[in-house]
Write a structure and sequence with these properties.
Layout lengths: L4 E5 L4 E8 L4 H9 L7 E12 L1 H16 L3 E5 L3 H13 L13 H38 L6 H11 L4 H23 L8 H39 L2 H7 L4 H39 L4 H11 L2 H27 L5 H32 L3
Parallel strand pairs: 2-3, 3-4
Antiparallel strand pairs: 1-2
Helix pairs in contact: 1-2, 2-3, 4-9, 5-9, 6-7, 6-9, 7-9, 7-11, 7-12, 9-11, 11-12
């Protein structure tokens, strides 16, 4: 097997390459290619002496041509047969046009540009979300005027998936929250001989805030992500476009059943979390503080206003709308690849949880101002 060689003639600015320029011989000639340069404006690369050329050899030729072109020397290839030229052209077209460059140090100007661009894109996202929310509410109003538009099988199926199937994890979460509150409260209240007030601590914390808030967070991670992934996958497979072609409204078919299922089932899940939390708190109070179940129930009945429970239940439908709308809106932002589905699903969960917590804070301020 003839080893490749390179010879440079400065009289006519011609570099002659001979031998077998294939992948397993490139190590013998790479240094010669690296040191090859021309003082004139043009260089002719004579390949008439080549016995064989493969993709690796073509890459070496293309890399040489690009390097010399960057130095101001135009390279002409001669002597190559049509197959060799076709291979060189194919490799040249497949390579990136521009090589990556190291990022320059960023200053205040670039930081301000990024801040402005991020703020602008954030504002566009807010407008898009509000537009989607308005579209969903408009479709809901149309459905109330024309009930036949409601797809009952889809609604019942989503209620089972988002509600019934979530009962075990929600009940376990509520029970453990009650246990933790009772245990931590006991450690503090025992110092003052006020162990009995642990009942008030558990009831108010769970009924007003923790029960429904943590339930909404679990639903956002469990059902919200499922909404985004399922609808996003349908968009990747162009099933949503097919729906529109058939005259079906994706909001009616896909979004409304999911949002309505959450609005119906989230209050029920929140109530289950409350009951489980009270049970866990009562059990730990009995074990840790000696507060009997009868005393716990009596104290709960005498000192817990029904509005504590009502405050949490009022929040539930609003949390459900936020989770459902954000999840479906993110699904509609999917752009043609499975990677986009994963990215939008992550954004859906993060934004849903953030908005639920922000909405809970707004409700807390509101109820405090009105004295509830």
């Amino acid at each position: 097997m003839a080893a490749p060689s390179v010879s440079l003639s400065l009289s006519d600015y011609t570099a002659r390459i001979s031998g077998r320029l294939v992948t397993n011989t490139l190590g013998q000639i790479d240094a010669a290619f690296q040191g090859l340069s021309a003082d004139g404006p043009t260089l002719t690369l004579d390949l008439s002496g080549l016995e064989a050329l493969d993709t690796g050899g073509a890459y070496l030729v293309v890399r040489l041509r690009r390097r010399l072109a960057a130095e101001g020397t135009e390279v002409h290839i001669s002597g190559a047969n049509p197959d060799q030229m076709q291979l060189i052209d194919t490799v040249s077209e497949a390579l990136p046009k521009d090589e990556g460059q190291e990022d320059l140090p960023r200053g205040v100007k670039e930081w301000l540009e990024d801040l402005g661009e991020g703020t602008y894109q954030g504002w566009l996202s807010v407008l898009s979300l509000l537009s989607f929310l308005g579209l969903t509410l408009q479709r809901f109003l149309r459905m109330t005027l024309q009930p036949r538009r409601l797809r009952m099988p889809a609604l019942v199926s989503q209620m089972q998936e988002t509600g019934l199937n979530a009962v075990p994890i929600v009940a376990l979460m509520g029970f453990l929250i009650g246990v933790v509150l009772s245990f931590q409260g006991a450690a503090q209240l025992r110092q003052f001989g006020a162990e009995v007030f642990v009942v008030d601590l558990i009831a108010i914390s769970i009924f007003r805030e923790l029960g429904i808030l943590l339930t909404a967070i679990i639903v956002a991670g469990r059902s919200g992500s499922a909404f985004t992934a399922s609808i996003g996958s349908m968009k990747v497979r162009e099933e949503i476009d097919a729906m529109r072609t058939l005259g079906l409204d994706p909001i009616d078919v896909l979004v409304l059943p999911r949002v309505l299922a959450l609005v119906i089932m989230l209050p029920a899940l929140g109530f289950i979390a409350n009951i489980a939390g009270i049970f866990g708190g009562a059990l730990m109070s009995w074990i840790e503080l000696g507060v009997s179940p009868g005393m716990f129930i009596t104290r709960l009945y005498e000192n817990t206003d029904v509005w504590h429970l009502g405050v949490g239940m009022i929040k539930a439908p609003f949390f459900a709308v936020v989770i459902g709308v954000v999840a479906c809106w993110r699904a509609m932002q999917v752009k043609g690849s499975s990677e986009s589905v994963g990215r939008q699903t992550t954004s859906s969960v993060v934004q849903s949880i953030f908005l639920v917590i922000a909405l809970d804070a707004a409700f807390s301020i509101f109820f405090s101002e009105v004295g509830v």
